[in-house]
Amino acid sequence: MSITRQKKEEIAADLEACLRESQGVVVANYTGLNAQETTDLRRQSREQEVVLRVVKNTITERVANKLELGELTQYLSGANMLAFSASDPLAPAKVVYEFAKKTKKLTLKGGVIEGKSCDRAELEALAALPAREVLLAMLLNVLQAPMRQLAATLQAVLNERAS
Questions:
Q1: What CA–CA distance (Å, rounded) separates 30 from 102?
Q2: Is the whole model's pTM more than 0.90, yes or no?
Q3: Tell me: the pLDDT tens digits for 111-151?
Q4: How far apart are CA 75 and CA 58, in angstroms?
Protein backbone atom coordinates (compact mmCIF):
# COMPACT_ATOMS: atom_id res chain seq x y z
CA MET A 1 0.00 0.00 0.00
CA SER A 2 1.50 3.31 -1.09
CA ILE A 3 1.41 6.51 0.92
CA THR A 4 -0.85 9.28 -0.36
CA ARG A 5 0.63 12.57 -1.52
CA GLN A 6 -0.96 14.40 1.41
CA LYS A 7 0.60 11.97 3.90
CA LYS A 8 4.00 12.39 2.22
CA GLU A 9 3.68 16.17 2.53
CA GLU A 10 2.85 15.82 6.25
CA ILE A 11 5.86 13.56 6.76
CA ALA A 12 8.07 16.02 4.86
CA ALA A 13 6.79 18.96 6.94
CA ASP A 14 7.49 17.07 10.18
CA LEU A 15 10.97 16.10 8.97
CA GLU A 16 11.67 19.68 7.90
CA ALA A 17 10.70 20.95 11.35
CA CYS A 18 12.97 18.38 13.02
CA LEU A 19 15.90 19.26 10.74
CA ARG A 20 15.44 23.02 11.24
CA GLU A 21 15.44 22.70 15.04
CA SER A 22 18.22 20.14 15.30
CA GLN A 23 21.84 20.93 16.01
CA GLY A 24 22.86 17.43 15.01
CA VAL A 25 21.40 14.75 12.78
CA VAL A 26 22.77 11.24 12.30
CA VAL A 27 21.89 8.65 9.66
CA ALA A 28 22.11 5.01 10.73
CA ASN A 29 21.36 1.68 9.08
CA TYR A 30 18.89 -0.18 11.27
CA THR A 31 18.66 -3.42 9.27
CA GLY A 32 18.42 -6.43 11.56
CA LEU A 33 16.96 -4.73 14.62
CA ASN A 34 14.01 -6.62 16.06
CA ALA A 35 11.01 -4.98 17.72
CA GLN A 36 12.42 -5.23 21.26
CA GLU A 37 15.76 -3.70 20.24
CA THR A 38 13.98 -0.89 18.40
CA THR A 39 11.87 -0.19 21.49
CA ASP A 40 15.01 -0.12 23.66
CA LEU A 41 16.71 2.28 21.24
CA ARG A 42 13.69 4.60 21.23
CA ARG A 43 13.54 4.54 25.04
CA GLN A 44 17.24 5.38 25.34
CA SER A 45 16.92 8.15 22.78
CA ARG A 46 13.97 9.72 24.62
CA GLU A 47 16.04 9.78 27.81
CA GLN A 48 18.72 11.77 25.96
CA GLU A 49 16.18 14.06 24.22
CA VAL A 50 16.94 12.53 20.84
CA VAL A 51 14.17 12.09 18.26
CA LEU A 52 14.25 9.04 15.97
CA ARG A 53 12.50 8.93 12.61
CA VAL A 54 12.32 6.39 9.82
CA VAL A 55 11.49 8.27 6.63
CA LYS A 56 11.69 7.29 2.97
CA ASN A 57 15.01 8.27 1.44
CA THR A 58 13.40 10.28 -1.36
CA ILE A 59 11.45 12.42 1.12
CA THR A 60 14.56 12.89 3.26
CA GLU A 61 16.59 13.85 0.21
CA ARG A 62 14.05 16.47 -0.91
CA VAL A 63 13.83 18.03 2.54
CA ALA A 64 17.64 17.99 3.01
CA ASN A 65 18.17 19.72 -0.32
CA LYS A 66 15.48 22.27 0.50
CA LEU A 67 17.25 23.11 3.77
CA GLU A 68 20.67 23.18 2.08
CA LEU A 69 21.82 20.01 3.86
CA GLY A 70 22.75 18.31 0.60
CA GLU A 71 25.75 16.62 2.21
CA LEU A 72 23.29 14.49 4.19
CA THR A 73 22.01 12.86 0.99
CA GLN A 74 25.26 10.91 0.42
CA TYR A 75 24.32 8.67 3.37
CA LEU A 76 20.79 7.90 2.16
CA SER A 77 20.82 4.39 0.78
CA GLY A 78 19.12 1.33 2.19
CA ALA A 79 17.10 1.20 5.41
CA ASN A 80 17.87 4.42 7.28
CA MET A 81 16.95 5.79 10.64
CA LEU A 82 17.47 9.49 11.37
CA ALA A 83 18.34 10.71 14.86
CA PHE A 84 17.98 14.41 15.78
CA SER A 85 18.63 16.57 18.80
CA ALA A 86 17.76 20.21 19.28
CA SER A 87 19.61 20.52 22.60
CA ASP A 88 22.92 18.66 22.18
CA PRO A 89 24.58 18.30 18.77
CA LEU A 90 26.44 15.12 19.78
CA ALA A 91 23.54 13.37 21.54
CA PRO A 92 22.25 11.56 18.41
CA ALA A 93 25.70 10.22 17.60
CA LYS A 94 26.29 9.13 21.21
CA VAL A 95 22.93 7.33 21.49
CA VAL A 96 23.33 5.48 18.19
CA TYR A 97 27.01 4.70 18.80
CA GLU A 98 26.42 3.29 22.31
CA PHE A 99 23.47 1.21 21.11
CA ALA A 100 25.46 -0.04 18.11
CA LYS A 101 28.27 -1.19 20.41
CA LYS A 102 25.78 -3.29 22.40
CA THR A 103 23.75 -4.82 19.58
CA LYS A 104 26.21 -4.93 16.67
CA LYS A 105 23.17 -4.54 14.38
CA LEU A 106 22.93 -0.77 14.12
CA THR A 107 25.49 1.01 11.93
CA LEU A 108 26.35 4.70 11.86
CA LYS A 109 26.57 5.98 8.29
CA GLY A 110 27.20 9.70 8.71
CA GLY A 111 25.50 12.93 9.56
CA VAL A 112 25.63 16.66 9.99
CA ILE A 113 26.77 18.18 13.29
CA GLU A 114 26.25 21.94 13.62
CA GLY A 115 26.29 22.35 9.84
CA LYS A 116 29.41 20.24 9.24
CA SER A 117 29.18 16.94 7.40
CA CYS A 118 30.70 14.03 9.32
CA ASP A 119 31.42 10.55 8.06
CA ARG A 120 31.20 7.38 10.13
CA ALA A 121 34.74 7.62 11.56
CA GLU A 122 34.28 11.24 12.64
CA LEU A 123 30.94 10.48 14.28
CA GLU A 124 32.39 7.53 16.18
CA ALA A 125 35.30 9.69 17.38
CA LEU A 126 32.91 12.44 18.52
CA ALA A 127 30.58 9.95 20.18
CA ALA A 128 33.47 8.44 22.15
CA LEU A 129 34.26 11.83 23.75
CA PRO A 130 33.12 12.36 27.33
CA ALA A 131 30.09 14.57 27.96
CA ARG A 132 30.51 18.34 27.73
CA GLU A 133 30.26 18.76 31.50
CA VAL A 134 33.01 16.20 32.06
CA LEU A 135 35.27 17.95 29.53
CA LEU A 136 34.67 21.30 31.24
CA ALA A 137 35.49 19.77 34.63
CA MET A 138 38.71 18.33 33.22
CA LEU A 139 39.66 21.73 31.76
CA LEU A 140 38.92 23.45 35.06
CA ASN A 141 41.09 20.92 36.89
CA VAL A 142 43.98 21.59 34.50
CA LEU A 143 43.60 25.35 34.96
CA GLN A 144 43.46 25.09 38.76
CA ALA A 145 46.45 22.74 39.13
CA PRO A 146 49.21 25.43 38.93
CA MET A 147 47.38 27.60 41.48
CA ARG A 148 47.00 24.64 43.83
CA GLN A 149 50.69 23.81 43.50
CA LEU A 150 51.69 27.41 44.19
CA ALA A 151 49.43 27.55 47.25
CA ALA A 152 50.84 24.25 48.55
CA THR A 153 54.41 25.48 48.04
CA LEU A 154 53.71 28.77 49.82
CA GLN A 155 52.00 26.92 52.67
CA ALA A 156 55.01 24.60 53.01
CA VAL A 157 57.35 27.62 53.19
CA LEU A 158 55.12 29.22 55.88
CA ASN A 159 55.01 25.98 57.87
CA GLU A 160 58.78 25.61 57.62
CA ARG A 161 59.42 29.16 58.89
CA ALA A 162 56.86 28.77 61.68
CA SER A 163 58.61 25.71 63.08
A1: 13
A2: no
A3: 998 888 889 999 888 888 877 787 788 888 888 888 888 88
A4: 12
